[in-house]
Amino acid sequence: MVNKKARSRPSSRIRQKRARARDEILAAARSLLRDGGPDAVTLAAVAGELGMTKPALYHYFSSKEALVRSLVTVLLDEEIEMLVAAVEGERDVGKVLGKLIQAFYDCYVHRLDAFRLVYSQSQLYSGTGSGMDPETLRDEVNPRTRRLFDVLEARLSPRGASDSERRRLRELAFAAWTSALGLLTILSVADATNDPLVHSDKALLAALTAVFDAAGGRDI
């Protein structure tokens, strides 16, 4: 007798087709984000980009919020891959944190709308109660950022480092990352309000990298 669950399970071909469709939808959403900012990413706009009906999108994403959450994870994956590659590629341990800050800046400086979407997503939907839900944070966002800090801890920790030493180095890495996040937040605000910073972003970047290169290069 054929198992009813096995019969109802989508075939590999159908799963691949659905995966391609999701990728196309996310690519269209990225295009809208690039050209019009976060507010431009709507189900209706994505459907128009792809020549689909809006109801057809519900087969893949149940709401705009679900689409945006998936887009956030795609962008976050790209960020983490870029930062990990930069950190692992820096041979001088004393410059790892400066490299991290530089890579974060490079990742978003020409894609401030992507930065806003990734790091302000909860605020975008706070009025409707549809912000980044705890499950998405726990299952999608936190594992990705944890991987970055695992890599940073491993790169920064000398052989034989104690648990407390590794913890302090991880905290220092987190401080460097939040400093980079703060710089991009300020740049994002300046861009959105058309109010240039008093100091150039390159000067601020150089100051941050110098501070954390100095911190990473001494015994803490």
Descriptive report:
There is one protein chain. By secondary structure, the protein is mainly α. The chain is built from ten helices and no strands. α5 (64-89) runs antiparallel to α6 (96-108), α6 (96-108) runs parallel beside α9 (163-193) and α9 runs antiparallel to α10. The chain is globular.
> Could you describe the largest sheet, including whether it forms a barrel?
none
| Number of distinct beta strands | 0
Rg from alpha-carbon coordinates: 21 Å
Look at the structure and give the CATH class of the largest domain.
Mainly Alpha
> In which range does the helix fraction lie?
over 70%
**Overall mean confidence score, pLDDT:** 87
CATH topology (level 3) name of the largest domain:
Tetracycline Repressor, domain 2
Count helical runs.
10
Beta content comes to under 5%
Structural class: mainly alpha
List unreliable stretches of 5+ residues: 124-130
What would CATH call the architecture of the largest domain? Orthogonal Bundle
Number of domains: 2
Distance between the termini: 67 Å
Q: Which of globular, elongated, flat, extended, rod-shaped describes the shape? A: globular
